[in-house]
Q: What sequence folds into this?
């Protein structure tokens, strides 16, 4: 018989003086979300604690059979409560419940059990979900808050994209980071004014953001381009993926990480696909479709802002992404990251990021199927794809993971050298031909 875990509600009174701690999944996006939450009266703090004690707390308080993201998220929260930095009588925890068929919907129950085990059973846990799965009288996502949150995600996607495409080439080290940080601060102020969600202002702001990255002085050189896909937490979180982006940067690569909005739209789209495949409430699929149209509008504003500047590679619209998997996987595969994962790989290859790291957490069967399982199919369509799935779990050593990626990079570098020498050959041939053609004609 399972143990019934008592729930401590987050009440209206708590909203006044409680600090809400949230795991750090996607650093850029969550820094913006933090500002949105504060704007609506929630004293939210995104956790930054890392290190072995996080994994240790996860292992100690969560069953070791649990997926790795749950272990890290719960470990990070308990480590923060243990740190003495927060008044544990005035702190609440926030965790997402995706509502899909996967275990992520049940992390919240694991967290509550772990809190009791660690002696923090009094700490309220707030569920962030779109399906009304759990309610707290002191926590309500109003419509304006939801709109601003979605806007923050699309700004996060834009900033991440531009930062990743500028940092490897910057002449003055640290300039891209400085620009990124200043935009996170500026957007925080713009959220307070409420302007950031109106279409016209959004366009203007995004244009300004693109130009600010464009102005950063760059060295013109070719780099190995690497795409990162995978389970949503280990894909974005440096805690989950052992600072993968930093490692790739040290290896002199340019990194492309498909945005968070794609994942949100994928989750919503599955409501429409479900109805088409299995039936169910038609009105629900109509609502989902309308939501995705709205999100598609935000996405389009961002894509247009990037496309207007030829220096940066813009992502493809979500609808196009969905069409890319027609010959790879069925749309009914929607556990974990489902069909989105191969769709992102297909898109990355088509945009020149043919070297791909697939980040997979321990215990995650769905993503092994839609990650590792589709590699052969993708290579059939794109033979030049150079894909390496990497497992992340408490027992995997960073050295091991990095060595496997280095192997993939050595293949990528060989290809890049071939491309460069072919380009040099072509230029030399063109010069020879044009100089021969321009020989003065001898007069007899
Ligand atoms: S997608 Fe994988 S990591 Fe995420 S809840 Fe499901 S099994 Fe766990």
A:
């Amino acid at each position: 018989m399972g143990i019934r875990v008592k729930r401590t509600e987050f009440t209206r009174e708590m909203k006044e003086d409680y600090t809400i701690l949230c795991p750090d999944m996607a650093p850029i996006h969550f820094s913006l979300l933090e500002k949105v939450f504060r704007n609506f009266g929630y004293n939210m703090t995104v956790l930054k604690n890392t290190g072995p004690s996080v994994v240790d707390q996860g292992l100690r308080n969560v069953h070791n059979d649990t997926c790795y993201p749950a272990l890290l998220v719960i470990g990070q929260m308990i480590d923060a409560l243990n740190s003495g930095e927060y008044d544990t009588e005035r702190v609440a925890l926030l965790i997402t419940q995706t509502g899909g068929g996967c275990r992520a919907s049940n992390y919240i129950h694991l967290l509550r059990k772990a809190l009791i085990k660690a002696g923090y059973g009094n700490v309220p846990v707030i569920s962030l979900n779109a399906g009304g799965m759990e309610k707290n009288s002191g926590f309500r996502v109003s419509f304006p808050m939801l709109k601003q949150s979605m806007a923050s995600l699309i700004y996060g996607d834009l900033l991440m994209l531009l930062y990743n495409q500028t940092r490897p080439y910057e002449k003055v080290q640290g300039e891209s980071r400085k620009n990124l940080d200043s935009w996170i601060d500026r957007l925080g102020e713009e959220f307070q004014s409420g302007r950031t969600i109106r279409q016209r202002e959004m366009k203007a702001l995004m244009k300004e953001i693109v130009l600010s990255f464009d102005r950063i002085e760059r060295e013109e050189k070719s780099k190995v381009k690497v795409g990162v896909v995978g389970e949503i937490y280990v894909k974005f979180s440096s805690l989950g993926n052992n600072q993968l982006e930093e490692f790739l940067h040290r290896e002199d690569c340019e990194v492309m990480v498909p945005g968070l909005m794609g994942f949100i739209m994928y989750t919503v789209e599955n409501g429409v696909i479900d109805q088409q495949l299995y039936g169910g409430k038609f009105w629900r699929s109509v609502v989902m479709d309308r939501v995705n149209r709205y999100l598609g509008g935000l996405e389009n504003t961002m894509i247009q802002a990037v496309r207007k500047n030829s220096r940066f590679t813009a992502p493809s619209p979500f609808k196009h992404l969905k069409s890319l998997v027609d010959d790879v996987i069925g749309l009914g595969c929607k556990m974990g990251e489902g069909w989105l994962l191969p769709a992102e790989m297909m898109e990355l290859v088509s945009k020149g990021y043919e070297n791909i790291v697939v980040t997979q957490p321990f215990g995650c069967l769905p993503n092994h199927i839609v990650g590792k399982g589709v590699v052969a199919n993708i290579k059939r369509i794109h033979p030049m794809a150079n894909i390496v799935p990497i497992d992340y779990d408490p027992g995997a050593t960073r050295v091991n993971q990095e060595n496997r990626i280095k192997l993939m990079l050595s293949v990528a570098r060989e290809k890049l050298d071939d491309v460069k020498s072919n380009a040099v050959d072509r230029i030399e041939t063109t010069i020879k031909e044009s100089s021969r053609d321009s020989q003065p004609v001898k007069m007899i």
